[in-house]
Design a protein that fits this description.
The protein is of the alpha/beta class. The chain has 2 domains: 179 residues, 3-Layer(aba) Sandwich (Rossmann fold), CATH 3.40.50.2000; 157 residues, Rossmann fold. It is globular, with a radius of gyration of 21 Å.
C-alpha cells in the first residue's frame, strides 16, 4: 500500500488505512505500506501490529509537498512492489507510484479515493483530465462515499467505481467508562480537526442559541490552524466557558472521550464518509451532522439527525431537538448496532480481500 499519512498521524484517512492494514495482517497476509516521515522522530522502517511500515522524505503539508513526496517515495514503492500480489494506492498522492509499480511489475492496482481533496480538485478544469486518468488507470477503483463515487464516474465515463464506506474497529470503539469529569450539563462532543472545511466555526456560532434553550457545553477534540480564531470567537460570543478545546488526542483515548458525551456533532462543510462520525456511533453516541457529502449516507433519524451546512440556527435547532427528545440512549444504541452490522472494519477487510483475490485470479487467467 501507499498512503501519504499513517499513524501516529491522526485523521480519518490515517485511521482507515491503519485499521484496514492491521485487519489484513491479522488474517495472515503480509502487508507493507510506504508512507511519509511527516512527524519528527518517525522511524524510517518499523513493524506496527504486523504491518511493515516504510517512511520516506516529506517536505511540506501542501500540494507541492504531497507531489514531491509522491515522486520521491516512488523508488521505495517500486522496490517493495517487486514481490507484491496487489498494489493499493490510498490517496491522490499515491496514484502515480501505484501506476508506475503496476507497469513495472504487472501486479493489479486498486485505488481508493477519499476526502474532500478529491472533490475540490474534481471541480477544477486543469485537474479533471488528470483525475480521469487516475480513475481509469486502476484495475479496481473504490470511493469512500457515494458522492465521491459519482464524481469519479463522471470523470471517467464507463469506468465502474465502487462506493465502499470506511470501517470502524468496533472492538476498540465501543461504549466504555467516561474519561471526562461528569457534569450536570448536556455534553456535546465535537471530534474535528480545526480546518475551515470541518465547519467548527458554525458550532461555535450556534452555541449561544443552544445554551439559551438547553443547559449544554461542547468539547472539541482536535487541533489545527483555526484554533486561536475559534477560541477568540467563542469568547467574543460569550460562550468561551461553554466550549473546551482539548487539542489533538490519540485514537486510544477517543473511546473514553466519546463515551463522556451525550451527543456528537459534525458541522462539516465538506465530508467524505466520516470515520470520526462512525467511531462516535460505534461508541453508542447519537450524531447530529451537516447534510453534506457522505454524512447523509450514515446518519438518519434512527441514529440522530441532519442540519444544513454553514447554518448555526439549523445546527442549534437540531441539537436542542435531539437533547430534548428523550431518545438519546435509544439513538445511541441503534447507532452502535448499525456500525457493527454494516460498517465494522472486519467486514471492510473481507470486502477488500474479495476484490484482491478476484484481481489476482483474473491476472492468472490472463497471463
Amino acid at each position: 500500500m501507499h498512503c501519504v499519512y499513517f499513524p501516529p498521524e491522526v485523521g480519518g484517512l490515517e485511521s482507515h488505512v491503519y485499521y484496514l492494514c492491521r485487519a489484513l495482517a491479522a488474517k495472515g497476509h503480509r502487508v507493507e505500506i510506504v508512507t511519509s516521515r511527516s512527524l519528527p522522530g518517525a522511524c524510517a522502517r518499523e513493524v506496527v501490529d504486523g504491518i511493515v511500515v516504510w517512511r520516506t522524505w516529506f517536505p511540506a503539508r501542501n500540494p507541492t509537498g504531497w507531489a514531491l513526496h509522491s515522486l520521491c517515495s516512488t523508488p521505495r514503492f517500486l522496490a517493495r512492489a517487486r514481490d507484491a500480489d496487489i498494489l493499493h494506492a490510498q490517496d491522490l498522492a499515491s496514484v502515480i507510484p501505484g501506476i508506475l509499480a503496476r507497469v513495472r511489475t504487472g501486479a493489479p492496482l486498486v485505488t481508493t479515493f477519499h476526502t474532500s481533496h478529491f472533490l475540490k480538485r474534481a471541480l477544477r478544469p486543469l485537474w479533471k483530465p488528470m483525475l480521469g486518468h487516475f480513475v481509469r488507470a486502476a484495475d479496481h477503483t473504490l470511493a469512500a462515499s457515494g458522492e465521491i463515487s459519482s464524481v469519479a464516474r463522471s470523470l471517467a465515463p464507463g469506468v465502474p467505481v465502487e462506493a465502499l464506506t470506511n470501517g470502524v474497529e468496533t472492538a476498540l470503539f465501543r461504549p466504555v467508562a467516561p474519561t471526562l469529569t461528569p457534569t450536570k450539563r448536556w455534553r456535546l462532543i465535537v471530534p474535528r480537526r480545526l480546518f475551515s472545511k470541518n465547519g467548527v466555526e458554525y458550532l461555535v456560532r450556534a452555541m449561544p442559541h443552544i445554551v439559551v434553550r438547553a443547559e449544554a457545553e461542547a468539547v472539541v477534540v482536535g487541533d489545527g490552524p483555526e484554533r486561536a480564531r475559534l477560541e477568540k470567537l467563542a469568547n467574543d460570543l460569550g460562550v468561551g466557558e461553554r466550549i473546551a478545546f482539548l487539542g489533538r488526542r490519540p485514537n486510544a483515548e477517543m473511546p473514553g472521550l466519546l463515551s463522556s458525551g451525550d451527543l456528537a456533532v459534525f458541522p462539516s462543510l465538506m465530508e467524505a464518509t466520516s470515520v470520526a462520525a462512525l467511531e462516535a456511533m460505534s461508541c453508542g453516541l447519537p450524531v447530529a451532522a451537516s447534510r453534506v457529502g457522505g454524512l447523509p449516507e450514515i446518519v438518519n433519524e434512527r441514529v440522530g439527525a441532519l442540519f444544513e451546512p454553514g447554518d448555526p440556527h439549523s445546527l442549534a435547532s437540531v441539537v436542542v431537538g435531539l437533547l430534548e427528545s428523550g431518545q438519546l440512549e435509544e439513538l445511541g444504541r441503534q447507532a452502535r448496532e448499525m456500525v457493527v452490522t454494516h460498517w465494522s472494519n472486519d467486514r471492510l477487510a473481507d470486502r477488500h480481500l474479495e476484490i484482491y483475490r478476484s484481481l489476482i485470479e483474473r491476472r492468472g487467467r490472463d497471463s
